[in-house]
Structures are given as C-alpha cells and as structure tokens.
Amino acid sequence: MTETIEDKVLGLVKATLGYKSSVRDELLKVIIKSVADELEIQKRIKLDFENAEHLMFIVDYSCFRYENKGAGTLPRNLEYRLRNLMVKYGGV
Q1: Using CA atoms in the order 48, 53, 57, 58, what is the torsion angle rounded to 10 degrees?
Q2: Residue 85: which residues within 8 A CB-CB, separation 6 or more?
Q3: Is-contact 45 39, C-beta < 8 A?
Q4: Dihedral over alpha carbons 30, 69, 87, 11 (to 10 degrees)
Q5: How far apart are CA 84 and CA 68, in angstroms?
Q6: What average pLDDT does the segment 37-58 reach?
Q7: SS3 of 8, please?
Q8: Where residue 30 falls among pLDDT bands split at 50, 70, 90?
Q9: What is the pLDDT of residues 41-50, one digit of tens each?
C-alpha cells in the first residue's frame, strides 16, 4: 500500500501534535485541506508536496489552526514564511 500525500501530511501533523490515535483524523484532514486550498486559491501559491518547505509550512499552519481553533493572530514565524512562499512561489 502506498502512502498518499494526504496521509503523509496527516501523519506529520499528528506527530507534531503528539497524537497517535485516529480520533481527530477527520477534523485534521479538513483543516489540512482548508490550509492547502487557501494557499493555492487565495494566495495563488503553486504547491509542490515534494518540496519540504511547502510540506512543513502546511503542517505548521495546520497545527496552528487546530490549536487555535481558527482564531488568533498568526505567529510571526508563520507570517514571515507565508510571505516568503508568496514571493517565491506565488502566481500573479
């Protein structure tokens, strides 16, 4: 059985959060999808899941969204990384 991109991202998010069970998998999958969609649709970043910079930003941003229930100010490190992604990989 081959691991999909979604499984890989989910596994990294769960590892970051310290979760081993699958109880929160559905919620985490939706958060991951919403983060990827926001980056591609709103920020016009062409995501490449083989790019570790993209992959880890999605993981970190998804963890932030989960832990802060979608509210709160984006931490400076995420804001800085998002700006860099938009400049480096964003479309016009």
Answers
A1: 30
A2: 39, 43, 45, 53, 54, 57
A3: yes
A4: -50
A5: 23
A6: 94
A7: helix
A8: very high
A9: 999 999 999 9
Q: Which residue is listed with tokens 């059985």? A: 1
- State residue 90 phi and psi, 5-degree precision: -75, 150
Domain ranges of the chain: 5-89
Which amino acid, one-letter code, is at 90?
G
Q: Write the CB contacts of 16 (distance below 8 Å, at least 6 apart in sequence).
A: 59, 60, 63
When comparing pLDDT for 3 and 79, which is higher? Answer: 79
Distance CA 18, CA 39 (A): 25
What global pTM score does this model have? 0.90
Nearest to 19 by CA among 11, 27, 9: 11
* Residue entry with tokens 């596994």: 11
